[in-house]
Amino acid sequence: SGDPDHGTGGRLSWQGGNTVTLSGGARVWGPRLELWSDEARYEREGSRLVLNGGRPVLHKIEGEWTTALKADHIVATQEPRRIEATGTVHGWLIFKDPEKIEELTK
Length: 106
Fold this sequence. Notes:
single chain, about 110 residues, mainly beta, 10-stranded antiparallel beta sheet, 1 helix
């Protein structure tokens, strides 16, 4: 729901209706997130976003918290709501309501 996110890259491919891959220099921007990576793959099952290559960057914008990070590999899932960055990771995390930190991290 809401305004759409937009993306660009060298190639867009999909497997059935379940997996979409943007490769050849992926860039996505919109109200929910921004990302840069050599390859961005979205898997509908599990609402999983996988960023590979070129030290991907993910900036999550909407929700109770916002973050921006750069890593060797990034995986974000909707359920459970989680972002996992591996390798050398740099970034930040800001909670909109610091009093809710303990509740949000459960």
